[in-house]
Amino acid sequence: MKNKMAIYLMLFMILVGFSGCTQVNVTGINDEASTVEITTESVTDPATETTTEPTTEPTTEPAPEAVILDQIKTSKIKPNELGEIMIIMYHNLANENSSYARTIESFKADLEMLYKGGYRLISMASFINGSIDVPYGYTPVVLTFDDGHSSNFKYIENGDGDWIIDPDSVIGILEDFTNKHPDFGKAAVFYLNAGNPFGQPKFLSEKLDFLLKNGYEIGNHAFDHEDLSKLDASGIQAALGRNVKKFMTLEPALEMRSLALPYGKMPQTNDLKPYVSKGSYEEITYENELSLLVGWRPTLPFYAKGFDHTAVHRVQSGDGDMQLAWWLSVFEENPERRFISDGVAEWITIPEQLSDKLDLSKVNMEKVLIIE
Ligand SMILES: [Zn+2]
């Protein structure tokens, strides 16, 4: 075990060395305590050593990498944070399943399948930042809902004249499910157009407020669901910026960090593509850190080589080929393809055989752990 550990650390150091990030020193390996200490040069900087008076008891909390290595030793599942992640695309709930709609029962069954299959909800912001905070051994998943259908978030009047969240709307179902299973996490992103989001204008402010206070996110889906492939530079900026302006007016705290491309369509020419990510309309500037396609497959995290933040794939909900149920069985049969968390949000743990797929320009190598 000691030899193996040394090999992993050697690999780690070699990679760090090649990457030009030479801030890591291995200062000791203590097999008895099962801890590996990796400290940075800045910790042993003499300037700070001589001026810092210890005022508290030394901390006994093990370093994150030691925690991860301990988990690996005692677990059958090994982390793979260069595995695939599903960003699932939903639209509305309806009486029958169709290419875009899901019945209430099917949507509840999807959540159940994900939960039992070891998937845990993360926000789009976490996906964008790469700070994926799910427990060791679990797989993150992002839920997305396009078009602001009324079945996504509806208020209904109960018998006492009070307005309550419809328990059969997406938000009602998600709230109920995550109350029963708090360890599932709570997150979803709604890609909205300006027209009549969620269908009840008098409750719109209240709904946006509820979403933001309860861990949900709002994303851009263009002001009027414009087909960006048919617009010029000013048309694209108007479609995206005007939508941001409308929602900022409604809810100043609202931030649209990502875009679901209407119809999954990009502008036709390369000179127009940058306006999908950044642009301005009147006094508003917007930035989409990520743009989603309609898609048919899972994605890799942003620090995988070749990741294109302007064209990120989604998995469509549904039971057909290359839809959610299909991909769940693919991951069941090929668990090595799946993103498996190391349980520490700020660290990235990857199997050695995938290390050449890591985009070194996008990660802090001090917080990357390469394992066998
Ligand atoms: Zn749409």
Short structural summary:
With 372 residues, the protein is of the alpha/beta class. The chain has helices at 2-19, 46-51, 64-74, 104-116, 124-129, 170-180, 204-213, 233-250, 274-277, 324-333; strands spanning 24-30, 35-40, 86-90, 119-121, 139-146, 155-157, 163-165, 189-192, 217-220, 258-260, 278-281, 284-287, 290-292, 315-316, 348-351, 368-371.
Protein described:
This protein has 372 residues and is an alpha/beta fold. It folds into two domains: 2-78 and 344-371, no CATH class; 86-337, TIM Barrel (Alpha-Beta Barrel), CATH 3.20.20. It is built from ten helices and 16 strands. The model is unreliable at 1-7 and 9-51 (pLDDT under 50). It binds zinc ion. Zinc ion is lined by residues 146-147, 221, 225, 262. The site of zinc ion has 5 residues, from loops.
**Proper CATH architecture of the largest domain:** Alpha-Beta Barrel
| CATH level 1 class label of the largest domain | Alpha Beta
Structurally, how many domains make up the residues? Answer: 2
Q: Percentage of helical residues? A: 25-40%
By helix and strand content, what is the structural category? alpha/beta
The geometry reads as globular
Share of β-strand residues: 15-25%
Listed once per kind, the bound small molecules are: zinc ion
- As for the CATH topology of the largest domain, it is TIM Barrel
CATH superfamily heading of the largest domain: Glycoside hydrolase/deacetylase
- Low-confidence segments: 1-7, 9-51
The Rg value, from CA coordinates, equals: 23 Å
Count helical runs.
10
How far from one another are the termini?
Answer: 12 Å
Main sheet: strands, sense, barrel: 6 strands, parallel
What is the H/E string?
HEEHHEHEHEEEHEHEHEHEEEEHEE
Residue-averaged pLDDT, rounded? Answer: 88
Structure summary, number of beta strands: 16
